[in-house]
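protien #1 (seq + structre)
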Amino acid sequence: MGGVGGAINAWWCYAKFPVPSDVFSGQFTWHIVPAGAAHGALLALVGVGLAARLSKKPLWMRWVGVPVSGIICGWIPYIPISLYVSSVKLWSGDIAGLSREDILRALWPFRLELETLWTLFQAFGLAGSVFVLLAAACGLLKSRRLLTHVLIGAVSGCAGSFWWWLAFKPWYFSVLHGAIWGSLVGYGVWKSQQQLQHSSSY
C-alpha cells in the first residue's frame, strides 16, 4: 500500500497536480513514478517493520527506537529517489554513463558529517520516527480500529514530508501527499492486524 501511495504522489508531481512544484517545475520525467512507488513501499516496509519489532521490546527500547528509525527511514527509502536523480542526468545526456562512484553516491547520497542527521530526517525520515512513536512507543500498533491506523499513517506521512516540502515548496504538498500515502499504509497495517488476530484465534 505504501508503494501505491508513493506511485500516486509521484504521478501527481509528474502531472503537475494540483500545481507544479516551485523547485522541480518541469524537471520530472515519467520515471519518477516507479521511483516514487519504490520509495513509498520502502518507507512503509521499513517504518512498519521497525514498529512491529520494537512493539515487542521494553518501553525504553521503543523510545530509543524512535530517533533511530528516523535515521534508517531517511536513508533506505531515499535510495530510489537518489537513483532517479542520477538516471535523469544519464538520460538527459548530462553524463556519459554512471560510474561506480555515481552508484555508490546514489546508495549513500549524504555527507558524512553531523548535519547529515538532520538531512536524513528531512528526507522523510521523520515519517518513520512519527510512525514508530505512535505505533510502537505509544502502543497503538495492535489497535483494532481502522481510524486509528489511518490517523497514525496520515499524521506520519504529513509530518514526515512537511520538512521536505517546506524546503522545496509548496508546503501544502505535505498534507496532500502525506494523507494519501499515510491513509493507504494505515489501511494496510489495519488489514494485516485483522488477519493476525483472526489467525491467532484458532
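ok now protien #2
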Amino acid sequence: MKNKSFDCVKMARDIRDKLYRENQSPSLKEFSDNLIKEAHKSLLWKKINVVK
C-alpha cells in the first residue's frame, strides 16, 4: 500500500471552502465570477497550454 504525502482531494476541498467563506454573501454569479478570477491567477492556470 502506498503512503501518500499529498492529498489532492483535501487540498481542493480546503481551497473551495476558503473561497466560499471569503465570498459567502455574493450571489451565485458573483461567486462564480470570483472563482474564475482566482483560477486565472493560479499557477496551474498559467502553466496550461491551450492548443487550437
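The mean pLDDT is 79.
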